[in-house]
Amino acid sequence: MIKKLFTRLLLLLVLSEMLLVLISWLLSATQTDGVRSLLSSEGIRWGLGHFSSMMLKPQLIWLLLIAMAGGCMWHSCIFRPSHVSFRRQFALRLAVSVFAFQIFIVVLLIAIPQAVLLSATGTLWPSPFSRALVPLAAFITINTSVCYGFLSQTFASMSDVFDSLKWGLTKSASLLLLYFLVVLIYESYRYVFT
Q1: Fewer CB within 10 Å, N or C, the chain?
Q2: Contact present, 55 and 156 (Cβ < 8 Å)
Q3: Rounded distance, CA 6 to CA 175, Å?
Q4: Angle, alpha carbons 56-164-129 (nearest 5°)
């Protein structure tokens, strides 16, 4: 059911992009002010020449980091212990301690006077901290999950950790496709009407 809805959403986005291309061509043919055609030589050069820069946004990196963190967390079984043994209880306690220590370090980096992650004016938003919030959350999640995974022996080697990161990326492939289509429509709209 969800797969069908997702497929329909992707189809709707592709049709929206095609409709935008057609509308841009029709409006530019009628010489409407402030409208550029995606089918003109300038539009084709823009689309092909700026495709990489259109897609390379912080949100893409955030999506990849969140996917890797989710895969690592899922494979470590930190939120779904199969049985509560002494080893898993110990692993969970230590993982919570590692999590708390990482949060403490981040708080120190933003709370002390002239903190490193504050802006030049001393504010939290916008600042290096606000720009690094998603990567920080992903790295903290990965570190905590890896700690739990090794202590509870759900991860036997670093190969298991890399496999969990890869699994998260594999599961997010459909979200990457959605990201590409949404960004393409947004940037095409901006090109046509600005």
Answers
A1: N
A2: no
A3: 10
A4: 45
pLDDT digits (tens, 9 = 90+) for 82-122: 667 888 889 999 999 999 999 999 999 999 888 899 988 88
Question: For position 81, what pLDDT does the model report?
Answer: 63
CA pair distance 182, 190, nearest whole angstrom: 12
Q: What is the dihedral of CA 2, 3, 8, 12, to 10 degrees?
A: 100
Mind listing the pLDDT tens digit for each residue in 8-38?
999 999 999 999 999 999 999 999 899 999 9
CB 172 within 8 A of CB 61: no
Compute the distance between CA of residue 65 and CA of residue 135 in angstroms, rounded to an integer: 7
* SS3 (DSSP) at 92: helix
